[in-house]
Amino acid sequence: MTDGGVQGSGASEGTSSALLVGVRAHDPAAWRRFVELYSPLLFHWCRKAGLQEADAADVTQEVFKAVRTSIAHYHHNQKGDTFRGWLWVITDNKIRDWVRAKRRHAQSAGGSDAQQMFQGVPDPHLPESDEASEREDRHLVHRRAVESILAECQEDTRKAFLRVVVEGQDPADVAEDLGMTVNAVYLIKSRILRRIREEFAGLVDL
Length: 206
Prior knowledge:
Layout lengths: L17 H7 L3 H21 L4 H18 L12 H27 L1 H9 L11 H20 L4 H12 L4 H8 L3 H19 L6
Helix pairs in contact: 1-2, 2-3, 2-6, 3-4, 4-5, 6-9, 7-8, 7-9, 8-9
C-alpha cells in the first residue's frame, strides 16, 4: 500500500524540525501551519490567565507577532529547554503588556472612578506550570500536530492510525476491518509517527 500523505517530509536541518526551518525562512505555508498548530494552546493560556475571549484572541495575535520577529533567536541548547517554555515566557510578557495598556487607557479616558474599578481587578497572569498543566498542553499540541498530518492522508490511512495509536486497538483487528494487511497497518503507524517527528521535532515536545 502506498499513500503520499504518509511519506516522510525529508531530512531536517540538524535537530530543527522541517516546520521550524520553514518558519525561520519566512515561508508563508510554514507560518500558516505553525499558527494552526499553536493557536489553540496560546488562546487556552490567555483564557487561563483570566482574559475574556476577545482579549485572549488579541493577545494571541500579539504573541504570534513577537514569535515571528524573534524565532531566529530561539535555540534548544540546554537540557530541559522546550519550545513550550519559550512560548510561555512570550505569552506571559504579552499578557502583562495588555494589563499595562488597559491601565493607561483607564487613566486617560476614565477618570478616577475607572482607575479605581480597574485597580480592583486582579492582574491577569499565567499560573505557574505543574505536571498536570504541562501534560494538558502537550496533549493539546500533539493532537493538533496529528490532525495536521492526517488531514493530508487518505481516509483508510487516517482510520488505521487513529484506531491503532489513539484508540489502542489491535492492529490485526484494524487490518481485517479495513481490508489491509497487518504489515500495512504497522507501516502507516510508523510512517506517520516519523513524519510528525520530522515535521514538528523541537516544536512539539515528543
